[in-house]
Amino acid sequence: MASAAEQLAANINFGAFSKATELKKRIWFTLGALIVYRLGTYIPLPGIDSGAFASFFADQSGGILGMFNMFAGGAVERMSIFALNIMPYISASIIIQLMTAVSPSLEALKKEGESGRKRLNQYTRYLTVALALVQSYGLALGLEGMNQGGAGVVIDPGWYFRLSTVITMVGGTMFLMWLGEQITARGVGNGISLIIFAGIVAALPGAFAQILELGRTGAMSTWFILGLLLLAMIVIMAIVFFERAQRRLIVQYPKRQMGNKMYGGEASHLPLKLNTAGVIPPIFASSLLLLPLTAVGFSSAGGPDWLATITQYLAHGTPLYMVLYTALIVFFCFFYTAIVFNPTETAENLKKYGGFIPGIRPGKNTADYLDFVLTRLTVVGAAYITVVCLLPEIMMAEYGAAFYFGGTSLLIMVTVTMDTVAQIHSHLLAHQYEGLIKKAKLRGRRG
């Protein structure tokens, strides 16, 4: 039997949306914030020769710079004030999350509730500033060392350029962090994810136009392009299916008598996602594999012979690249899942509140069972992420197709879209609940 919330959700329609004034304000605020972000990606960094850097980036677009440029919505390609994008904040969040699992003091903060969460967020902001300082200074030194056709990328190298670059880049990152928090608080939520989403989506029209141009010139047949679009739709449907897939474990709570009333006795579910790690594994795997290629590209002499050999074997589409990419994705799937979900802690919380899984003894047996179930789910989730991320690599290697609609970018776009729709759905539910409460009060007064 459907619950009252599910029945109410089924009745939500466009009319409910048109009456939700607060939700419309949140959506307009989110769109305005994202427009500000997109405008900022076109403001160039002072002291850069744009033409020389564009030529240099064209030669290095296959390395890690190309991946960062995808997340930054073209800001790296144009070397704008938002070139670092929100990546230092994401790195800081991951580091704090990993440290929480190994540091007793941070773990204690995590268990303190809202106050502990605020302190962890503050530590994340401090670490974001530190990472942005290091990355922006390293970027300034790297820009000074770049040469294209004998011409330097930086017009006037020196400490003034380095200082201005550090201040500008750190300021841009902190502004984006603030903007993401404002979208989360005053918009539809998921502010940081929506900023990355906007950057990736901004590159899709150009990618689609390039595919159409290949079809016009005869480099790709019409049927092949239609096949690519059909494959993209299949991949999107697969991502939606696997991202929504859950294993719901039944949790039973015993009946307890308090005074003359009985409480508890109901059953609930403990949902375990098929893909607990999200998009972190392919991002980490791509970053590690692209490091040798980027190192060779930044070296004016092409780097040592052994590094050039490794780069040759780790080029996109090579068998070694495919094998290592798969191995790293699987490794990070299990590693990150172990960090974000602690079976022992979950089992202890269930035991503390009197909950138990039918047929499983509370305590260690419950923790072992949760670990067993989660391991099997992670195997399937890792296989799903691997297939989605290897698909564009195979298309480019075998058919020379610029398959943009796959891999990490498509995974991010679909998951963020699903989360945003869920947030809008929850706002609509809240609006309808408020309407029902107001009607009930009016009826009570009339009665």
Descriptive overview:
This protein is mostly helical. It has a domain at 221-405: Orthogonal Bundle (Preprotein translocase SecY subunit), CATH 1.10.3370. Helices cover 72% and strands 6% of the residues. The chain contains 17 helices and six strands. It has helices at residues 4-10, 14-19, 21-40, 50-60, 64-71, 87-102, 104-110, 114-145, 159-186, 191-217, 222-244, 280-298, 305-313, 319-340, 343-352, 364-399, 407-446, and strands at 147-148, 151-152, 246-252, 255-258, 261-264, 267-273. It has a two-stranded antiparallel ribbon with strand order 1-2. The protein is globular and about 85 Å long. Residues 1-12 have low confidence and may be disordered.
Number of helices: 17
CATH class placement of the domain at 221-405: Mainly Alpha
Topology as H/E string? HHHHHHHHEEHHHEEEEHHHHHH
**Count of individual beta strands:** 6
The N- to C-terminal Cα distance equals 32 Å
The structural class is mainly alpha
Helix content: over 70%
- Would you tell me which CATH topology of the domain at 221-405 applies? Preprotein translocase SecY subunit
CATH architecture of the domain at 221-405: Orthogonal Bundle
**Shape summary:** globular
Keywords: Cell membrane, Membrane, Protein transport, Translocation, Transmembrane, Transmembrane helix, Transport
Protein name: Protein translocase subunit SecY
Membrane topology: Multi-pass membrane protein
InterPro entries: SecY, SecY/SEC61-alpha, SecY_CS, SecY_dom_sf
Short structural summary:
Belongs to the SecY/SEC61-alpha family. By secondary structure, the chain is mainly alpha-helical.
